Amino acid sequence: MLDSARLPVQDSTLPDTVSAGIPAPVVLEPLVPGVVPRLAAWALHVAGWTVRLAQPVPERCVVIFYPHTTNWDTVIGLCAKAMIGIRFHFVGKDTLFRFPLGRILARWGGIPVNRRSPAGFIGQMKAAFDRRREFRLALAPEGTRSRTDYWKSGFIRLAHEAGVPLALAYIDYPRREIGVGAYLDPGTDVAADMARIRAFYAGKVGLNPENQGPIRLHEESSPPG
Questions:
Q1: Cβ distance 105 to 92 under 8 Å?
Q2: How far apart, in whole angstroms, are the C-alpha atoms of residue 55 and residue 206?
Q3: What is the per-residue pLDDT across 10-52, written as a single tens digit (0 to 9) for each?
Q4: Could you tell me the pLDDT band of residue 5, with boundaries at 50, 70 and 90?
């Protein structure tokens, strides 16, 4: 259970921290009780990592993570997740959720997606948002740890369809920082939203920068060169 006095959680209109360039607060100690959060905080401290978490945290949002260039991102990210104590969901093929992995994946926050469904990915995930009062879905817009020239647009389409904000999660190896740095309410101007997303992630560098592709969508009429 989150301590709401220390970590405000709400689903109302969010301040525009992207355009304002306001740094997210540093998390100095675990936000939830338990041995695992304390061990995670200790490990991050020993390794020299800083965790930041923009507040207030929305109850429902689409979380995107960039740059993702190595499996070490997952290890560091799991430690940060344990420290802040927020439950994130992720998607996987419905065939992976059969016995014996199904219960384990669901307990970790996994959501099965039926690619054969006429509703498609966006429709299924919008229905998942509609059914839940609290739902934070993590998506990887690059879709791979290797370099790619374009992001997949599902994250911004889903946020718009579900009427939820985007949570901009990041990792920056030169600064040894990880966290959720800002929230963005997507509008109807995708190009403007992508420009704000690029502004937020500017200067954030992965462990393997050569795998870090540009932040742009196929759908953008005039992507940056």
A1: yes
A2: 24
A3: 444 455 566 556 789 999 999 999 999 999 999 999 999 999 9
A4: very low
- Residue 145 corresponds to which tokens in the numbers above? 């740890």
Q: Give the sheet arrangement for strand 26-27, strand by strand.
A: 26-27, 50-53, 177-184, 166-172, 60-66, 135-139
Enter the pTM of the model: 0.84
Provide the CA 26 distance to its chain's centre, in angstroms: 17
In angstroms, the CA 119 to CA 197 distance is: 28
CA–CA distance, 48 with 44 (Å, rounded to integer)? 6
The residue assigned the tokens 């923009």 is: 54
Residues 5-38: b if buried by 16+ CB within 10 A, e if exposed: eebeeeeeebeebbeeeeebeebeebbbeeeebe
What is the C-alpha to C-alpha distance for residues 225 and 216, in angstroms, rounded to an integer?
A: 10
User: Which residue bears the tokens 């689903």?
Assistant: 11
At 57-83, the pLDDT tens digits run 999 999 999 999 998 998 999 899 999
- End-to-end alpha-carbon separation of the chain, Å? 46
- Tell me how crowded residue 97 is: count the other CB atoms within 10 A of its CB: 17
Identify the H or E element spanning 47.
Answer: none
Domain residue ranges of the chain, discontinuous segments joined by +: 23-202
Distance CA 97, CA 100 (A): 8
Residue type, 113: V
User: Residues near 198 by Cβ (< 8 Å), separated by ≥ 6?
Assistant: 215, 216, 224
